[in-house]
Design brief:
Layout lengths: L1 E5 L6 H12 L3 E3 H11 L2 H11 L6 H12 L8 E4 L5 H12 L7 E6 L2 H11 L6 H15 L1 H5 L4 E5 L4 H12 L2
Parallel strand pairs: 1-3, 1-4, 2-3, 4-5
Length: 181
């Protein structure tokens, strides 16, 4: 099963990804983890990403997409994967579709975790991270609405909307039911 997780920051994607990955026996592929792994291993892509990060810039789509493509070519992803953090834009979605099409593959579903902005703010403030204040959180939500939310329409034919305001176990059960697993 090839899946993408969508949802605003604080929707619980990372938590659900870990649980779903374990249940479905497919790797959870997070762009944050890919960046850290490539940088720590000193790969060419990691060095490129580090240059942008050190300059305080966003890592370009091309570098991120190349990291994702390398990861999808590993043996454990042959029978499926769960992408978290990629794609974030329509441009990235089109690159992913091209990568998969070259192998005769496609996404099975895109899971969209739906949660209200107030719940997101409450959850993120409760984490107690230094960079999580209400203004920062609301700015991140605005970036999500502008850049990533258009993917909801882009993927409407394979989209599964999941209410992400309950407890973790209920959200996981609802997701698995929607996937018919």
């Amino acid at each position: 099963m090839r899946l993408v997780l969508l949802g605003p920051p604080g929707a619980g994607k990372g938590t659900q990804a870990a649980l779903l990955s374990d249940t479905l026996k497919i790797p959870h592929i997070s762009t944050g983890d890919l960046f850290r792994a490539n940088i720590s291993k000193g790969t060419d892509l990691g060095k490129q990403a580090q240059e942008y990060i050190d300059a305080g810039k966003l890592v370009p789509t091309e570098v991120t997409a190349n990291m994702v493509q390398d990861r999808l070519e590993q043996d454990d992803a042959a029978d499926g994967f769960l992408l978290d953090g990629f794609p974030r834009t329509i441009e990235q979605a089109e690159l992913l579709e091209k990568m998969l099409a070259e192998k005769g593959l496609h996404l099975d579903h895109v899971i969209n975790y739906v949660v209200s902005e107030d719940v997101v703010v409450e959850r993120m403030l409760a984490r107690g991270r230094g960079d999580d204040n209400e203004d920062t959180i609301r700015t991140r939500l605005e970036v999500y609405r502008t850049e990533t939310a258009p993917l909801i329409e882009h993927y409407q034919d394979i989209l599964l909307n999941i209410d992400a305001e309950g407890n973790v176990e209920d959200i996981t059960a609802t997701t698995l039911d929607a996937l018919d697993k």
